[in-house]
Amino acid sequence: MQSDTQTAPISKAMLWTGRVMSALPVLFFLMDGIMKLVKPPIVVKSTVELGYPESVILPIGVVLLVCTVLYVIPRTSGLGAILLTGYLGGAVATHVRVGAGAFPIVFPIIFGVLVWGGLFLRDGRVRALIPLRR
Questions:
Q1: What's the CA gap between 56 and 48, in Å, rounded?
Q2: pLDDT for the residue 129
Q3: What's 99's DSSP letter?
Q4: Is the model's pLDDT at 1 over the cut of 70?
Q5: Euclidean distance between the first and final Cα of the chain, in Å?
Q6: Angstrom distance (rounded) from CA 82 to CA 98
Q7: pLDDT value of position 114
Q8: What does DSSP assign to residue 32?
Q9: CA 82 to chain centre
Q10: pTM attached to this predicted model
């Protein structure tokens, strides 16, 4: 199926900047997801302190890894970004609910900016949706 959306050519610098911006949260999400699958004591302790039962750690890790893989695959990167945004919103809400300090609340927001900023720079379809020029 042919798309009606025309994408402008992208410079190599913009492409690589987007890839690096995307790689930072991807590496963190992969590490975090794997740690949730392995469930070392610190992960269990932290999750329970945030008010979640230990039984949800594994499913949360699987969801995070699936969302991250969707984000890495170019064809599904938009869906992955949307799902990761929801995941990060849940992290913000959790930390606000427990009264965490500013850093645990701002950290997922920064990662959301990296997810979407990286996708914007490396994917012409996203740039076509968000024109910055007047």
A1: 10
A2: 87
A3: T
A4: no
A5: 30
A6: 25
A7: 97
A8: H
A9: 8
A10: 0.87
